[in-house]
Amino acid sequence: MARLFAGFTIRGGVLFAAVATFGCGSSKSSDGTATDQEPVSWNGNIAPLVAKKCVGCHQTGGIAPMSLESYASAKPYARQMLAEVAAGAMPPWSARTTDECTPPYAFKDDPTLSDDEMSQLKAWVDNGAIEGAASNTPLPVPAQRTLDNRDLELTIPTTINVDGGSDQLLCFSLDPKLDQDAWVNGVQVNPGNPEIVHHVLLFSDPQGQSIELAGDKGYYPCFGGPELEPSPDGPSFALLGAWAPGGVPTVTPPDVAMQLPGGSRLVMQVHYHPHDGVHSGADSSTSVDLRFAPTAPRLVGKLALLGNISQQDWDKAGGEGYGLMPGPDDPPPPAKAEFSIPPNVSGHTETERILIPEEKGVKDYLVWGIATHMHYVGTDMKIDLVHSDGSSDCLLQTPQWDFNWQRVYYYDTPLASAPVANFGDVIQMRCTYDNTMNNPQVVTALDQQGLTAPKTVTLGETSLDEMCLGAFGFAVEGK
Ligand code: HEC
Predict the structure, then answer these.
(1) How far is the CA of 143 from the centre of ligand 1 (A)?
(2) Which pLDDT tens digit goes with each residue over 210-263?
(3) 85 in ligand 1 pocket by Cβ < 6 Å?
(4) How far is the CA of 58 from the centre of ligand 1 (A)?
(5) Would you say 288 and 190 are in contact if contact means Cβ atoms under 8 Å apart?
(6) Angle in degrees, CA 74, 247, 96, rounded to 5
(7) Is 476 in contact with 253 (CB distance < 8 Å)?
(8) Cα(473)–Cα(461) distance, rounded to whole angstroms?
(9) Residue 164 in contact with residue 74, Cβ under 8 Å?
(10) CA nearest to 91, candidates 375, 371, 405, 381
C-alpha cells in the first residue's frame, strides 16, 4: 500500500482512484505494476466530456436528433459518436486554425475535443463503452445556446404558408412598445418552423416606417434588406441580430449594448426556403427575444454585414484596390471583374476588400464577434484585418464551410484586448467555391430545383445564388 500511495498528494479524488484500481486488480501496466488509471468509463470520464461538449444540443427537446444525457441513451451511439467526432463533423464548429489563419484569440465555447479527450472517447469505445461506478461529481453545465433573462418576446403576427417550393422573403413589423430609449445586449431568434426558415435578420426601425409598409397584414415582401430609408435627421435603421441554421444568440460583451430609440418598431426579415423535399409548410411562431441593459453602456454596439459586392467598381469602393478584386475566371481588363462562379469549376475564389469607413467621432472599432456567411457552393471563407502599415491579422477562417452550421464566433478575451480596426484598415474576405457535382451541397441545391448539372452562380438571395458576407460585432465610443 505504501508504494501505491507514494508520490500522490492525498486528495480525496486521487486517493479514491488509486484504491479502486488496486481493489479491482485488473488495471496493470505492461510491466505488471499497478497504475492509477481506471478503465475509461461513462461515469468516470465520458459523461463530463459529453455534458460539456455535446449535451447543449443532444438533450431531450434539443436541436439534435438524440439525447446523450444518460448512459442508457448514449451507449447505443458509442461507435457513431467516435466516428462523427473523428471525422470533425461533431461537435459542429466551423472555425479552425489553419496554415494561413491563426486567429488572435481562441473563441468562447469552442466545443472541439482536445487530443486527450479524443483518446478518452476512443478508449471508451474500444473497451466496450462501459458505464463505470456512479460518481458524485456534478457534471459541467453545457455552453448556453439560448439567451438567459430575456425582457421581451415578440412573435410574428400571423401564419405564413409557404407553398410551391419557391423562396419568400418577408419583413414583419413588430412593436416593442418602448416609450424611451433602450439598450439591447442580447437578441435571440427562435425559428418557428426550422424546416422552412432559412435565415432571419432583425433591424431597428426608429422612424416606424415599417407600419405603413406592412399595412393591415403586418408584413411585406422585402428582398435585399428591410427596405427602410436612411433618415437624414434622426436615427436610421440598424441591424440588431441575425440567425441562420446552427445560430446562437447575439450577445454583446459587458459595457456594450446596441441602441434602440424610444418609439422604434422592429423589422424581422424572415427568409422562407422550402427544401429537401419540403415544398410547403406553415410558420406561425417565429419569434425574437430581446434583453436590455439596465443603463446606457460605456460603448455602443453595432452589427455590420460587409461584403456581397457584385462588381469591381473602384470609384464606388474608395479607390483602386478596394471592393471586389479581380480574380480567377474573370474576363481580362479592361472588362471589370464580376462576382460570377462558372459551372464545373472548383477552387474558384472571390475576394473583397472593404475600407473601414470614417465615421464622425469614431476612432476605433473593437471587434467582439464575427461570422462568415455563404450559401451551398461555398467551401471555405477567410476574413483578414489588414492594417494601414501592411501588417495583418487573420480574424476567422471556416475552412469546412457547412451551410447548416453557421454562428457568430466570440473572442475569448476581455474587450480591452479585442482586435481593433481603425479608419484606413481593410477588412479582406476571401470566399472559395466548388461549383461541381463533387460538392454534395451543390448536388442537393440543384436537385431542389429539378436540375442535374451546375450552372453559373452569381450574387443573390436564393439557394442557387451565392454570397460572400462577413458579419461583425463592433464596439465604438460615441453616441
Ligand atoms: C451545436 C449542436 C450540436 C452539438 C454541440 C453536438 N451535436 Fe451531434 N448532432 C447535432 C445535430 C443537429 C445532429 C443531426 C444531424 C445534423 O444535423 O448534422 C447531430 C448528429 C449527431 C450524430 C449522428 C446521429 C445520427 O443518427 O446520424 C452523432 C453520433 C452525434 N451528433 C454525436 C455528437 C457528439 C459525440 C457530440 C459532442 C462531442 C455532439 N454530437 C455535439 C447537433 C449537435
Answers:
(1) 15
(2) 999 999 999 999 977 789 998 888 888 999 998 887 888 999 999 999 999 999
(3) yes
(4) 7
(5) yes
(6) 80
(7) no
(8) 22
(9) no
(10) 405
